[in-house]
């Protein structure tokens, strides 16, 4: 779970603590945030694998072991909650506590331990809160399909910006499917087929409701999608989740024969037991809902609960807020950042007519990279492009998906000095082409803004043809500006070294 977004309106108190506790079917989570000087910062997180859903018997009764695991976990949470005002704490239970016939037994003792009321929310409310958490932390363009695979339920939501339009909660999850289809510890083709088929049966009544929506992006909230993204990144793949990757991971699981022997590079030990079952559900979702690619959101249920308590939360552009906050935090020259951004966008608008930018927010990457291209100066000058990429690999950027942030990092790495083509290799070929164009644009925008003053440049035409970029200046302008002329000559050489061609007329 990433850090939460900044807010623009200060609270009546200078500093307050808030906590959200999610009693999930697989894990119990607690997140604690500090609201100070108009910003929200995570200051504590606790996650414990409780596997509550595994304790449900055929009569929907939680067995004693699962009850004890849950209560023991809450004893850890309780002490930390003592420091937080009661009104600033929200505790919710989800699918397993909805299903358990003896839920009152669990709740009676759990509330005594926590000293807080536990709200067992229905599936639709869980879906709504998940969507709000995703929307607050992952700014979206147009309609978005949001999916969260939990331990005993899966929530599916279509929404636009902060408004969920259509939502549902289905009784299928990675823990319950593990107990049903992979209980013998074996990972077989037949087990996968049975799990996928059952997921499709459960999806059938609602499938058309979601396929009929014209949604522009699909976002996965934590759990299985997060685990798959971690696997891809570890294996050197910077890409969205795609169906062919899921099929490949399915075969890797089958090749390992049994769960105890499951060994996939990038898969955490904590996720191993429930990975095949979660993967089966995700494959069914991709196939039935016609999903081509999925990106990871910045938040989910816990973020939705936190922001639901912040009544004076401003629903502004989360990306703009994030960039403004980072400019201040890393002492970036905001005037120059905006100067480079404006020039890069001016060039981009000409290029946009010539280049295919469909299905990817190239403009968001260009704006982010332009505004943050000097973030590495926070460390030192000589290698500040390298330092900048390092910083952007480790700081949260609320409003940006993981893929967008990875692209911004790559463009910042290449905004000056030698061009690192190896940094493009983790991306698919089509994405490499887009990033190459953005790198050329940011390099030119930085170069042409070298004097760090406004209104010095004439109208400039830019054109791309295959691997060649052409810049056209007014007649005689370059000769009368030897500094920029010399910088462009060096840039021609830098691009030539990697097989690119820059022409200045």
TrEMBL record:
Swiss-Prot/TrEMBL catalytic activity: guanosine 3'-diphosphate 5'-triphosphate + H2O = guanosine 3',5'-bis(diphosphate) + phosphate + H(+)
Name of the top EC class for this enzyme: hydrolase
Domain Ppx/GppA phosphatase N-terminal: 31-312
Domain Ppx/GppA phosphatase C-terminal intervals: 319-492
EC numbers, comma separated: 3.6.1.40
GO BP field: guanosine pentaphosphate catabolic process; guanosine tetraphosphate biosynthetic process
Similarity comment text for this entry: Belongs to the GppA/Ppx family. GppA subfamily.
Name listed for the protein in its UniProt record: Guanosine-5'-triphosphate,3'-diphosphate pyrophosphatase
Gene source species: Paraglaciecola hydrolytica
Lineage: Bacteria, Pseudomonadati, Pseudomonadota, Gammaproteobacteria, Alteromonadales
């Amino acid at each position: 779970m990433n850090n939460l977004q900044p807010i623009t309106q200060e609270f009546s108190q200078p500093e307050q603590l808030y906590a959200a506790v999610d009693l999930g079917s697989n894990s119990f989570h607690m997140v604690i945030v500090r609201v100070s000087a108009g910003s929200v910062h995570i200051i504590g997180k606790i996650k414990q694998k409780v596997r509550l859903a595994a304790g449900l018997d055929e009569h929907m009764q939680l067995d004693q072991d699962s009850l004890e695991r849950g209560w023991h976990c809450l004893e850890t949470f309780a002490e930390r909650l003592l420091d937080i005002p009661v009104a600033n704490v929200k505790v919710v239970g989800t699918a397993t506590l909805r299903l358990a016939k003896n839920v009152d037994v669990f709740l009676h003792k759990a509330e005594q331990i926590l000293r807080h009321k536990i709200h067992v929310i229905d599936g639709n409310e869980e879906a709504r809160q998940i969507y709000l958490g995703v929307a607050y932390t992952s700014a979206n363009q147009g309609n978005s399909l949001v999916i969260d695979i939990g331990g005993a339920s899966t929530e599916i939501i279509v929404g636009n910006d902060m408004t969920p339009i259509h939502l549902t909660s289905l009784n299928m999850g990675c823990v319950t499917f593990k107990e049903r289809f992979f209980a013998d510890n074996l990972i077989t083709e037949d087990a996968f087929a049975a799990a996928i088929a059952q997921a499709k049966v459960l999806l059938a009544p609602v499938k058309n409701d979601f396929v009929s929506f014209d949604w522009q992006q699909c976002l996965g909230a934590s759990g299985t999608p997060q685990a798959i993204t971690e696997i891809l990144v570890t294996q050197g793949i910077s890409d969205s989740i795609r169906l062919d990757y899921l099929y490949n991971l399915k075969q890797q699981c089958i090749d390992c024969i049994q769960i105890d022997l499951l060994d996939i590079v990038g898969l955490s030990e904590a996720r191993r037991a429930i990975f095949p079952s979660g993967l089966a559900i995700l494959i069914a979702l991709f196939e039935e809902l016609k999903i081509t690619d999925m990106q990871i959101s910045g938040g989910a249920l816990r973020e939705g609960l936190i922001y639901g308590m912040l009544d004076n939360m401003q629903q502004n552009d989360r990306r703009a807020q994030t960039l403004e906050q980072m400019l201040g935090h890393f002492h970036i020259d905001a005037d120059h950042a905006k100067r480079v951004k404006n020039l890069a966008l001016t060039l981009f608008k000409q290029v946009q007519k010539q280049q295919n930018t469909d299905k990817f927010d190239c403009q968001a990457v260009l704006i982010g990279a332009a505004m943050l291209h000097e973030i590495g100066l926070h460390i030192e000058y000589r290698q500040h492009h390298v330092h900048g990429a390092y910083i952007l690999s480790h700081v949260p950027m609320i409003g940006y998906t993981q893929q967008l942030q990875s692209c911004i990092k790559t463009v910042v790495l290449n905004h000056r000095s030698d061009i690192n083509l190896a940094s493009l290799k983790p991306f698919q070929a089509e994405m490499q082409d887009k990033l190459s164009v953005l790198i050329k644009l940011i390099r030119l925008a930085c170069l042409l803004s070298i004097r760090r003053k406004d209104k010095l440049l004439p109208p400039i035409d830019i054109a791309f043809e295959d691997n060649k970029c052409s810049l056209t200046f007014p007649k005689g302008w370059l000769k009368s500006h030897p500094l920029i002329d010399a910088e462009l000559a060096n840039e021609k050489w830098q691009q030539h070294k990697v097989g690119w061609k820059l022409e200045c007329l």
